[in-house]
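User: I'm new to structure prediction. If I give you an amino acid sequence, what do you actually give back? Let's try with this one:
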Amino acid sequence: MSPAHEPAAFPSLSTGAEVDLCIEKLAFGGKALGRVGGFVVFVDHAVPGQKVRVRITRKKSRFAEAMVVQLLEQSPAYAPPFCPHFGLCGGCQWQDLHYEEQLHWKRIQVEESLQHLAGLKAGDILPTVASPDQRYYRNKMEFAFAPRPWRPSEGLVEGTRAAGGVCALGLHVGAESDQIFNLEHCFLQSPGSTAIVAEVRRWCGQSGLVAYNRRTHRGFWRFLVLREGKRTAQTLVHLITTDQGDPAAVEALADHLVARFPVITSLVHSRSRTKAQVAQGESSRTLWGPGYIEEQLGDLRLRISPNSFLQTNTAAAEGLYNAISRLGEFTGEETVWDLYCGAGSIALSLASKVRRVVGFELVAAAVNDAYINSRLNGLENCRFLAGDLKDLIRETLRAGALHQGLPDVVITDPPRAGMHPQVIQALRELSPRRIIAVSCNPATLARDLALLQDRYDILTIQPFDLFPHTAHIECVARLDRRHPAPA
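Assistant: Good question. You get back a string of structure tokens that encode the predicted 3D arrangement of the chain. For your 487 residues, that looks like this:
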């Protein structure tokens, strides 16, 4: 190693400096980690076991960030990426890692989150359950419009936007960029979805209406969302625009798409006036079909409307729900509360195994979907309540737990931010004999479990891979009450 790359030189590391690293591990969040003389360097798109030369892109007091400029030694864990957009797209950042290694590191990151962030020693962290499908597994994808496309050939850092494009439709360049590249192929949703994206891009580019510019907040075309029933072969196209154009253009596009793609069974148009980058609208109209699709999840038939929440990996979600049922050890006599229940898919999957289920959800439209799905499946022992959970739980308690008794088991499946502290306090007061905690963020799961560990034993943590080739991890944790419930 040359003197310029000596580990002892790490205090003088600065932006632009080049150093040689051995990649030790994958850090939580997905970046690779190496050290220069003990100083931590996070690297994009590197694999444990590789030796790489990197250029420092950012220097902080405790760590640096870097990009690979030269591969010096390959790792046995490396796998050739199979997508032509890898490295440009902000999606599948682990596509260059063997799938078995992905599962290994996801389990390690759950363990480290519990130990380092919350000081927890879980009784049993099981191996990560693999996704049944590692390609074309998503039932929902969101694509964004932009006035001009980013040219992949010019790279992420040094690139400029193409001069001749009039409409871009695809995915984001990098994880945090607001630039959009034109998607040519994607291994996440079905191959047919890519054809729909390409045709929408072509048609909108010739429509005379410009795409939305998130900096000026001007333009018409904004988002395209595709939802697929993996078990039913139904497809919903959801077009989101602003109100700065003629809605008749969307009607013309809808007629064109339905004629060209027989797989489309429903098409919905929503209009959004908000500046927030959310693929939803304040008002919607159905232009083709019933305005929803259906999906089969285990024994359940579920109606999925444009904004309904459903786990995006249908096949892996079936395994996740089976694990919730198994860890719950239900006898058929339990009252179960499902917190953050969304459209009720977890609650409905348990309904035939317990006495009754009560779901709690903030979004009223999701509760409406939950009731529709309970009727669709002939389930009469479910009730769903809409409102802010931290208030709704206490109101329910004051009302005598719906005159149906306090919960024996509570299921929680919060958003990435985890449970609100008042929800955790309500859980402590409820003191159910068992809690099944579902989480898409091991860091906030660790924080929430730490607030319950004085009353509950953490018996099992089961990681699931619902998002192959990404750093995202889903977990199910079983907690059993250590002490009798308070009188």
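You can read the tokens as a compact description of the fold. Here is one thing that stands out. The longest helix spans residues 99-118.
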